[in-house]
Amino acid sequence: MSNLFSVDGKVALVTGGTRGIGLMIARGFVENGAKVYISSRKRESCEEVAAELSKVGICLALPADLSTEAEANRLAAALAGREAKLHVLVNNAGANWGAPMAEYPDAAWDKVLALNLKAIFQLTRACLPQLEAAATADDPARVINIGSIDGLRVPLLHTYAYSSSKAAVHHLTRVLAVELAPKHITVNAVAPGPFESKMMAETLRNFGEAIKASCPLGRIGRPDDMAGVAIYLASRAGAYVTGTVIPVDGGITVRPS
Predict the structure, then answer these.
(1) Domains (ranges, CATH) in the chain?
(2) d(Cα 193, Cα 128) in Å, to the nearest integer?
(3) Which of 117-120's residues contact partners 24+ apart within 8 Å by CB, and which partners?
(4) Which of the following is catalytic: 37, 104, 160, 162?
(5) Residues 3-25: what's their mean pLDDT?
(6) Contacts of 86 (CB under 8 A, 6+ apart)
(7) Is 232 a catalytic residue?
(8) How confident is the model at residue 205, as a pLDDT?
């Protein structure tokens, strides 16, 4: 039982890993002995964060713009050129767009759905050979998709494409969990509530105190809260869990209205 929550020696790929939720997860993996590849659109950011995390473990940069299928395939090929096995894929890269309904453009749907939803399917499919190579019945390979509590409830803000995409991520997670289970690959989603991140910065600046007041646990999420659930899902502790959506929100989604 002493290594029940260990990710030591596992190879992980974290998209959107240079900031926010992705960085929280990447740092948690690195600090606990995993070899982590981080990917984001900006090469400089990838290399800077990889250098920082390499001070405490093994972290390497693999930049990619996952808004296109070609880039998802290129990222998977680049990883395959370095690693025969991929134990953990964290699909975190995402985008948001807010505007009133009358002004909400088609471009918002195209951008947000391409990155938040299609990229998860495309990259998971492209990484299947390495995931299958890592998978065993006792210790499956893991896919962890980052959804949102805005995919579980109606959001306050006008983020039509974002909240719809995250609800779709949750269902895609269930679909892939059933399809990939025979290959000994688990697929789960995490639905974060409010955490300190660039995407949440403006919302927390304007509504931070109200959000805290609405949270049964009375606070904003911390980096170790997010790292903890990812480590659980990636470790032996989470080996028999698949097709789930885990809210990490301090109880916001179960709070009586």
Answers:
(1) 11-249 (3.40.50.720)
(2) 29
(3) 117/165, 117/168, 117/169, 117/172, 118/69, 119/15, 119/66, 119/67, 119/72, 119/91, 119/93, 120/91, 120/145, 120/169, 120/172
(4) 162
(5) 97
(6) 11, 12, 13, 79, 127, 130, 131, 133, 134, 141
(7) no
(8) 77
- The whole-angstrom separation of Cα 19 and Cα 69 is 23
CA distances from 78 to 69, 89, 125 (A): 14, 14, 15
Residue 222's pLDDT band, with cuts at 50, 70 and 90, is very high
For the segment 154-169, the average pLDDT, to the nearest whole number, is 93
Query: What is the pLDDT, as a whole number, of residue 199?
Result: 66
Residue with structure tokens 């990939």?
180
Contacts of 168 (CB under 8 A, 6+ apart): 113, 117, 151
> Residue 155 has what pLDDT?
86
